[in-house]
TrEMBL record:
InterPro entries associated with the record: Flavin_Rdtase-like_dom (IPR002563), NADH-dep_flavin_reductase (IPR050268), Split_barrel_FMN-bd (IPR012349)
Organism listed in the record: Streptomyces goshikiensis
Record keywords, A-Z: Oxidoreductase
Coiled coil: none
Protein name (Swiss-Prot/TrEMBL): Flavin reductase family protein
SUPFAM superfamilies: FMN-binding split barrel (SSF50475)
All copies of domain Flavin reductase like, residue ranges: 19-164
Length: 169
């Protein structure tokens, strides 16, 4: 927040929050996915989640044509998968040829190696939010519960610092 009040700048510093991989498939068969840091649950009843995709990102182009998005949580030890979806551009590389995945019931690509995932129907697109476009999602499908045991550390911003985004040239 250049040129802003110093107290607001400190508030806007990115926390070490969970990172997500968001994937989309359009009706024409195009697939895309990217690493996302801006995402949050935003309603309990009805359940809603929002993700913001960068306007510079190839995934945004596919997501604009999609009806569903899949949101994946990775473990802290899955930097390689995060790197693939965070540094490679889907306009140049087929990321899905490099990882196991399957289409959800609604066609969104689901990454087999994700710790957890859900597919959400796009309820609303929020275009006027700055350099990202928001997608309000209503969950329609989710990963099965994992075996009980200690919860793994999830992939966080600190795990992917230093990655160079793979936006189109």
């Amino acid at each position: 927040m250049t040129g802003s009040d110093p107290e607001l700048v400190a508030f806007a510093e990115p926390p070490d929050g969970t990172m997500y991989v968001v994937t989309a498939a359009a009706a024409d068969g195009a697939r895309a996915g990217c690493l996302v840091g801006f995402a949050s649950q935003c309603s309990i009843h009805p359940p809603r989640f929002v993700v913001w995709l960068s306007t510079a990102n190839h995934t945004l182009r596919v997501a604009r044509e999609a009806s569903f998005l899949a949101v994946h949580v990775l473990g802290g030890d899955q930097r390689e998968l995060a790197e693939l979806f965070g540094t490679e551009c889907g306009a140049r590389v087929d990321k899905f040829a490099r990882v196991p995945w399957r289409p959800s019931a609604d066609g969104a690509p689901v990454l087999s190696e994700a710790r957890a995932w859900f597919v959400g129907r796009i309820e609303q697109r929020m275009e006027d939010t700055g350099d990202h476009v928001g997608f309000l999602l209503a969950p329609v499908e989710q990963s099965p519960d994992r075996d009980a045991g200690p919860a793994p550390r999830l992939l966080a911003l600190r795990d992917v610092e230093g990655l160079t985004p793979g936006h189109p040239a």
